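User: I'm putting together a small comparison set for a docking exercise, and I want a reference complex before I start. The sequence is below, and the ligand is zinc ion. Could you produce the 3D structure with the ligand included, as structure tokens?
Assistant: Of course. I'll restate your input first, then give the structure tokens for the complex.
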Amino acid sequence: MVYRVRYFVVLGLCLGVVTVAAGCGSIKKSLSKTKPYFLAKEEPWRQSEEFVCVRSGDVRRSAFIVPRSRIDGPSFCGAEYPLKVSALDHGRVRMSPGATLRCPMVPAIEKWIREVVQPASYRHFNQPVRDMNVISSYSCRPQNNRHGARLSEHGYANAIDIAKFTLAGGQTIDIKKSWRGRSSESFFLKEIHRGACRIFYTVLGPNYDKNHYNHFHFDLARHGRFGTKRICK
Ligand SMILES: [Zn+2]
């Protein structure tokens, strides 16, 4: 199978997108002078998964979930039916600021809130979480902002980064400050991180690397030969 690989090249102020067949000598030669900003390949499952989610009716438009216009590139970045999500669980849990996500991420985050976050919050603090601080959702960039790496799941609006949680009573639990140690906050964070691993396909936290010292990263990327492998770190 020959994948069509799109190299997204940033040259100073000049943005350029070049579509080539993988292994094309002339293009390799022209790109050898400049490392591409990120690498991405066509993955048809992304569009079909998004379409199935939209058609399923699982995600309904509301005051908190509003469709926005198609994001078409650059390169493979974007989504056909992106959603602006400002709250979940019928508006009971705010997303601050609102996140731009593709459809399958919405029920996944909602499931995590209902089945993992709120039960843990009641157990540790006897009250629910009311607000989640989102530090990244859609963003067309390479993984870890590393020039030349693969396109991040954020580039497909298929990922979210969450840094803080605010309880109904106003207390804020900050991953950067509370991840380590043996406080209730630390146990709460470790529990909801672990619980995310049965819902999302990639779960990264402060134990993964220094880029994640202050947040959880969740996405629904397919991993492994059959797309069924999970990453939980
Ligand atoms: Zn992330």
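Residues 45-232 form one domain. Residues 177 and 214 are 8 Å apart (CA to CA).
User: Thanks, that's exactly what I needed.
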